[in-house]
Design a protein that fits this description.
2 helices, 2 strands, single chain, 100 residues, alpha+beta
Length: 100
């Protein structure tokens, strides 16, 4: 009976020693579908880097205004006028102008 108990204890110990590597975490390349995949956060995790690209400045150039000289003023030629003075009394004169 001692031999049977010893054999049974030896078989159980061998089985436990053979199963112990199964409790370890799998390597980095091994897929994990259980608790570790859902809850384990690796130490090399970094938050996503947000890249901010500022908008390019928009320069609006106002249209160029060219100030041209005003057009030349054209006047009608003056109408001919006859001017005259009529003496009425000493030191008194009456002036007149007649347009033609």
């Amino acid at each position: 009976m001692k031999a049977t108990t010893l054999a049974l204890a030896l078989a159980a110990g061998t089985t436990l020693l053979a199963a112990s590597p199964a409790f370890a975490d799998p390597g980095r390349g091994a897929p994990a579908y259980g608790w570790r995949a859902k809850h384990h956060q690796p130490h090399h995790f970094r938050a996503p880097a947000y890249v901010y690209v500022p908008a390019r400045p928009v320069v609006v150039v106002p249209p160029r205004v060219v100030y041209a000289p005003p057009p030349p003023m054209v006047y009608a030629p003056p109408a001919p006028v006859i001017f005259g003075q009529v003496p009425v009394a000493p030191g008194v004169r009456v002036s007149f102008g007649v347009r033609l």
